[in-house]
Write a structure and sequence with these properties.
There is one protein chain. This protein has helices at 14-25, 29-36, 40-47, 55-65, 94-118, 136-149, 161-167, 212-229, 238-250, 253-259, 266-276, 280-289, 295-307, 325-334, 337-348, 352-358, and strands at 2-5, 8-11, 84-88, 170-175, 189-194, 202-207. The protein is of the alpha+beta class. It has three domains: 2-73, 434 Repressor (Amino-terminal Domain) (Orthogonal Bundle), CATH 1.10.260.40; 84-307, no CATH class; 325-358, no CATH class. The strands form two sheets. A four-stranded mixed beta sheet has the order 3-5-6-4, sandwiched between helices. A hairpin with a 7-residue loop joins strand 5 and strand 6 (202-207). The longest helix is centred in the first third of the chain and has 25 residues, at 94-118. The chain starts with a strand and ends in a 10-residue tail after the last helix. It comes from Aciditerrimonas ferrireducens. Pfam families: HTH_3, Peptidase_M78. This is Helix-turn-helix domain-containing protein. Residues 18-72 form the HTH cro/C1-type domain.
Length: 368
């Protein structure tokens, strides 16, 4: 459907797309209006649908934002309410929430288009919780069923969380905004998941920065949302449930019973971290969660962590994991290297440098 202004036909939904690009680049209506020489009132009217955008105005917006013209003709698939979930700090600003929501919506749009066109994509086949309420035992059981569904050993370490998700049909995407905190993490955000359910694709995103053990827990946490909350949309403690799932998925209960059968020290926990790719803090919480470490001992261990400066900088390095499925989908369709990114940018409506951060190939393109 198209409307007209100044004799040029443009899609009527371009107001929504102008708002979308503003959110993605982090600028206000006033800033955008000033950069293209129009009034803020005009931008407001276009975004609200009260006026249509001219083709010339869209060309100007594309030029100043660095987004291809095709972005303004791309329509994201409808996502059911609450199918998009964040793991973030409570202090994050609403403006940043909206910005991340838009980034994930555009990421999902591109993934959806790629798997639709490919035709060979098989969506995740995961156990899905459907009961109104879940007990701790239910979540433990679902975590073990998920291991089985992903072809993982029932009691060993998950060697590569990212690859396990991708083999099971979940597209894993590194996400980035311009701002990072003192630990190198994107401000306020850890992970995000989006899955309306089969036959649509599932996307799990993580924000770059931080450590490998934190990345792995974040991915397991988001996998928990897919399993626990795809059918159960209104859950009071969905973050708590996803944390419980992640712990059970990464450290099965039977093995945890072995670990904590005797008095454990921080040195013991550091050795477990090296073997399982799970942080010392998460291991302590897993023991406490199962009633294997009492509250007093839990407090004591965390005080020892703080005294050694390990709350933010634990010993034992866990390597970051690199996703591959999204890059493979792009390469299959558009080819490798910078030329592949350029072809993808025009077809998918996202700049080559944005695609390069979402789906890093052998060589990430510059903004030029």
């Amino acid at each position: 459907m198209k409307g007209t202004l100044d004799g040029n036909e443009v899609p009527v939904y371009t107001g929504e797309r102008i708002r979308a690009v503003r959110l993605l680049v982090g600028i206000s209506q006033t800033d955008l209006a000033a950069s293209i020489g129009v009034t803020q009132a005009l931008i407001s009217q276009i975004e609200s649908g009260r006026r249509a955008a001219s083709a010339r105005l869209l060309d100007q917006v594309a030029e100043v934002t660095g987004y291809p013209r095709s972005f303004f003709e791309s329509v994201p698939p409808d996502l059911p309410p609450l199918s998009l979930r964040f793991r973030r700090k409570a202090t994050v600003r609403n403006s940043e929430v909206h910005r991340v929501e838009q980034l994930v919506a555009e990421t999902y749009r591109v993934v959806w288009q790629l798997v639709r066109d490919r035709g060979r994509y098989i969506p995740p086949s995961l156990p899905l919780a459907s009961s109104d309420t879940l007990s701790a035992e239910d979540i433990e059981s679902l975590a073990m069923q998920t291991r089985e569904a992903l072809g993982l050993d029932s009691s060993g370490p998950v060697r590569h969380v990212t690859r396990s998700l991708e083999r099971g049909g979940t597209v894993v995407v590194p996400l980035a905004l311009a701002e990072t905190d003192e630990d190198g993490e994107t401000v306020g955000h850890f992970g995000v998941s989006c899955w309306p359910g089969a036959p649509d694709p599932a996307v799990v995103g993580y924000f770059e920065g931080g450590t490998g053990d934190r990345q792995r827990f974040t991915l397991a946490h988001e996998l928990g949302h897919l399993v626990l909350h795809t059918r159960r949309r209104f859950v009071p403690d969905h973050e708590d449930e996803a944390n419980r799932f992640a712990s059970a998925f990464l450290v099965p209960r039977d093995r945890a019973l072995e670990f904590f059968a005797t008095h454990v020290t921080l040195r013991d926990l550091a050795q477990l971290k090296a073997a399982w790719g799970v942080s010392i803090q998460a291991l302590i919480m897993r023991g406490n969660q199962l009633g294997l470490i009492d509250p007093a001992r839990t407090t004591s261990l965390f005080k020892q962590l703080s005294a050694r400066g390990w709350r933010k900088n634990e010993p034992v390095r866990v390597h970051l994991e690199a996703p591959a499925l999204f890059s493979k989908l792009l390469e299959d369709r558009f080819g490798q290297g910078a030329s592949g990114y350029r072809r993808a940018a025009d077809a998918l409506g996202l700049p080559a440098f944005v695609l390069g951060t979402l789906a890093p190939m052998a060589r990430t393109p510059s903004r030029a």
